[in-house]
């Protein structure tokens, strides 16, 4: 049954101060019981109806809360970490995040519960409705994320990690890659490079990672143009690294590569070596990757390192602060920094040798 005292923690779109479950039902054109079933997952609702209700919950900012003060419930001592499983996993980033999150949780007296699901909503329904966790950390949060309405309706503390767009009062951690792109272009221009290839992920990206890529590309392209550096961007799948380099380096190719995919990085470096080319003497390479992947390369690459460990620890800290009574603050923006390594150097004096001479 629905609870007529369920209200929102923040003003709704109409500025009335509270949003009830009935408001959500009326706006979505469904019954209040249907909204309740979407929130709790107790009954199967058609995908179209469920999507409409979730979008309405998100748009109105509905958040379930009892209408009168109640004693704080006993803690389970568990923080749930929600992450949808995908074919293309950035293992280095994820390992670093979970390792740091587990360490921070242990110091603060909590365990972690990993929650996986194709879209994350059914699993979150189970965790929040059964009170299996005190708070939820949501990875890979993007614009219009279907997990946000579930969290809003549950009333439980939550931290979104990604690029969640409108948050409706939920705590959030996000990365800003635009300064990273600018730093990368500046670094290569200062070394005398005037032609750079940006190798992008070939696989389809979730919304937050696509936004990270777009922000990096915007910062990189703007700065490169200002510094007189020609750039070309193209997708490069790990298994296509050799052919990708053949195409790029056929005629007067770039003197530097920016590899924006930690899965493809070792394949690109191997393809460069197979051509008889030296890094950085013949071609410079900048990576966008985790510290774990950077540490496992033959030489330490110059890299924009994704601060996954910092994100993991901060997500746990912000979740526990909410449990201790601190309201969700403004989103925390973290900027990945370019770390100099051994894979970049001055541009070759006469440009890159033709492919026929490189081997």
Give a description of the structure.
The chain is of the alpha/beta class. It has helices spanning 21-28, 32-40, 47-60, 91-107, 121-129, 147-154, 178-190, 207-226, 241-249, 265-274, 291-295, 308-323, 355-358, and strands at 78-82, 111-115, 135-141, 158-162, 171-175, 195-200, 230-235, 256-259, 284-289, 302-305, 332-334, 338-339. It contains 13 helices and twelve strands. It has three domains: 1-71, lambda repressor-like DNA-binding domains (434 Repressor (Amino-terminal Domain), Orthogonal Bundle); 78-174 and 308-334, Response regulator (Rossmann fold, 3-Layer(aba) Sandwich); 178-305 and 340-358, Rossmann fold (3-Layer(aba) Sandwich). The strands form two sheets. It has a six-stranded parallel sheet, sandwiched between helices. The protein has a six-stranded mixed sheet with strand order 7-6-8-9-10-12, sandwiched between helices.
Going by helix content, strand content and strand pairing, the class is alpha/beta
Total helices: the number is: 13
Rg over C-alpha atoms, rounded to the nearest angstrom? 24 Å
Strand order, sheet with most strands: 2-1-3-4-5-11
- Report the principal-axis shape: elongated
Order of helices and strands: HHHEHEHEHEEHEHEHEHEHEHEEH
Helix content: 25-40%
As residue ranges, the low-confidence spans are 1-16, 66-72, 352-359
Count structural domains: 3
- The CATH class assignment of the largest domain is Alpha Beta
For the termini, the CA-CA separation is 73 Å
GO molecular function: DNA binding
Keywords: DNA-binding, Transcription, Transcription regulation
Region (Disordered): 331-359
Domain HTH lacI-type: 19-66
